[in-house]
């Protein structure tokens, strides 16, 4: 037994080991095996060359077949793509025609309804339709124009990264809410009138307003009081977009416009809950709540 502590053993670091043994252990084992077994014979070399040639021939054959199949299928894919594009355009034309027809019928119904109502009732109904977005309105207001900014490229590699200056559905939602808060009385986005049940959503790379696609540049038109432009420019939404414009290059412009014309929105499909014709079976068990039933003389 001694009082002195044991001596420490220092292992060589990685760089020292790399310079001491620069050859990979696998190469060392292969060289040792070659030294022990001797160089390959002529038959072994011939077999190796044959296997390599057959392998290269098979790989080349597979690449040729794949290329031929790709080239052969390209006309079919192009034809199918062109057919889908033609169908989409045709359906868009039909949808526009049906929309125009629905607008004409709506206007005819409104004329006949106004003819049957008294003056005060017709005026009250027109006011309610204008407030809910179901009537075409015209007046002075504000036009907010926002568009995507250019995608930035890496200064070192030149690769194009994700575009942070794209207009999203949340951006249009924020602009619409900011205009409502500033006192707007009617709003439309690229000709799509907003109502209390309108939706602004993102589907893939497209923005849908009431399930209809809108493309940039996006124009949000709003009719309201004379202070609408000043109030919106002083809002937090406008300050946010000005900072996005300065940082990412997104286009954002707000200006007052006289005599804006906003179209009417489609009438919403309202649904009402009703009692079933036959009473539903009451579930058994503890805490089960009976369903409402109907009986003679009752509701």
TrEMBL record:
UniProt superkingdom: Bacteria
Listed transmembrane segments: 46-67
Annotated signal peptide: none
Chain positions covered by the region annotation Disordered: 25-48, 269-299
InterPro entries documented for this protein: DUF881
Cited PANTHER family: UPF0749 PROTEIN RV1823, UPF0749 PROTEIN RV1825
Family affiliation: Belongs to the UPF0749 family.
Name of the protein described by the UniProt record: DUF881 domain-containing protein
